[in-house]
Amino acid sequence: MADPFLSLAIITYQSEKTVAETLASLENLKELETVELILFDDASRDATRELVSKWVDKNRKLFHSVQTIFSDRNLGISRAHTRAFAEAKGVWGTYLGGDDLLRSPSRDFFLKLKTALQDVKEHLVRLRVKEYWSETGTIIDYFDSYSFLIRLSARRQYRYLASSGYPFRSGPGTVFRLDTLRALDGFGTYNLAFEDWQLYLRFTRNGYRAGFLDLEGVLWRRHPGQVSATGAQKFALGNALVKRKEIIPYLDRLSLFERWKFRFRGRISSRLHVYYQKYLGLWGRLFGVRR
User: Fold this and answer.
1) Measured between alpha carbons, how far is residue 21 from residues 15, 100, 144, 221 in Å?
2) Which of 27, 60, 190, 224 sits 20 to 30 Å CA-CA off 19?
3) How far apart are CA 5 and CA 33, in angstroms?
């Protein structure tokens, strides 16, 4: 059997209220036989594992192959992603949380993704991700807010990410070459409450430009119980760790102005992040587009 073109990892933790809908969102999509599904549970104590096992027993044959990994101890978000992709067999990899959804305008999401990736030169690609506020049904599209990065080289992308911060919403929608991910240890081995800022820093710092595909289908579910809504302190600590590991040793790659901006932003970013989390969802409730 040929290797799958894509390894899709779904990372769960205490996801019993949402994981059934996440898994169900895959069932009607085409080209599942070219997708390796990896289900990684990070030591949940609720009914997540039972729900996942029951769904796999029923739907295993839809996919190229299915791996189910139940961790005995909680690894944290970044290390859970590293472990999930450790033995993945796909050419490309991507991930969803145990509360995210794949809702493509058509059933051809994986076919369109496979076709688009055949022409992509980049090893790291961002898709059009939309925020989905499940309590209100609000959907917000932020894609155009970071489209300016498309025009930058890998070197300039790294300088922007290092000096100005991470412009994307932390969540799903990133696709990467698995061989490059492993070579760069993309997610890292330290414990972070997010999976993506260090990923983009490592790729761009090593000369791999981030690309962008205007492909819809990934919904990042927002709800009061998720880490990004409750873990402001964890995010602040994670940001500090990423700066120390991924930026400060490479400050000589930044201009004098970018170094000043990095240090100035560092003094206020933690406080601003707390305010952002406090008012999380206000923008969505006021200005989101209801579908």
Assistant:
1) 10, 9, 28, 11
2) 190
3) 10
The CATH code of the domain that includes 139 is: 3.90.550.10
Q: Domain range holding 270?
A: 255-287
Query: Which tens digits make up the pLDDT trace of 257-289?
Result: 888 888 876 555 545 444 444 444 444 444 443
CA distance linking residue 149 with residue 285, whole number of Å: 27
The reply to whether 265 falls in a domain is yes
Nearby residues of 229 by Cβ (< 8 Å), 6 or more positions away: 222, 223, 277, 280, 281
Does some domain include residue 1? no
pTM: 0.87
Q: Cα(204)–Cα(158) distance, rounded to whole angstroms?
A: 5
Q: 70: helix, coil or strand?
A: strand
Q: Are 88 and 1 in contact (CB under 8 A)?
A: no
Q: What is the DSSP string of 258-275?
A: HHHHHHHHHHHHHHHHHH
Please tell me the distance from the alpha carbon of residue 139 to that of residue 287, in angstroms, as a whole number: 10
Helical (H) or strand (E) element with 8? strand 6-12
Q: What is the pLDDT of residues 171-195, one digit of tens each?
A: 789 999 999 999 999 888 877 767 7
> Are 157 and 283 found together in one domain?
no
Say what the pLDDT of residue 169 is. 64
